[in-house]
Specification:
By secondary structure, the chain is α/β, with parallel strands linked by helices. It has one domain: Rossmann fold. Helices cover about 25% and strands about 35% of the residues. It contains four helices and eight strands. An eight-stranded mixed sheet has the order 3-4-2-1-5-6-8-7, sandwiched between helices. Strand 1, helix 2 and strand 2 form a beta-alpha-beta unit.
Length: about 170
């Protein structure tokens, strides 16, 4: 799925928030977008730390917004206190979580009450790199089991991709 379509969906689903965390941020490109268009503060966490950079981005109104990434594991995000973020995003990374139940528990812990989790990822049927992909039904069940409410999972027509949201 094209990054621009994912960014558009994130903007539509999250609106503007104060703080957002990108789980599985990779080089941090999405974090920069989030700081410019979605949040005053955007942070990313990834088990790899190659290519990270901290920067100050300007939002559309010209105010400075911060963006940065830290090395860490989604299964244990002790660098972040409880209820730290208004939203958590994971794009092209949910299938890479070695223990999605524990990661979802940590995501829920760092989300503020009423906060939103947004997932954009490949679905089962995709055949990249022999990784574990989930069906929309499996993602929905994982989110509900982790305690998220208002769970919505949207399968993108004609491609192996989904968007999912849940609230704390």
């Amino acid at each position: 799925m094209e990054l621009e379509k994912i960014q558009e969906k994130i903007r539509h689903r999250l609106g503007e928030v104060t703080s957002v965390l990108d789980v599985g941020c990779g080089s941090g490109d999405l974090v920069g977008f989030l700081a410019e268009h979605v949040a005053q503060e955007a942070l990313g966490i990834d088990i790899q730390s190659e290519g990270f950079h901290k920067k100050v981005a300007s939002s559309k109104d010209g105010t400075p917004h911060s963006a940065g990434c830290v090395k860490g594991d989604a299964r244990s995000m002790e660098a972040f206190p409880n209820e730290r973020f208004d939203a958590v995003v994971t794009a092209h990374a949910f299938h890479e979580l070695s223990d999605p139940e524990t990661a979802l528990s940590e995501i829920r812990r760092v989300l503020k009450l009423g906060g939103t989790l947004f997932i954009a990822d490949f679905t089962k049927g995709e055949t990249r790199w022999d990784e574990h992909y989930y069906t929309p039904e499996e993602v929905e069940a994982l989110l509900e089991k982790a305690g998220f409410t208002d769970v919505e999972v949207e399968k993108v027509p004609d491609v192996y991709f989904l968007f999912a949201t849940g609230r704390k």
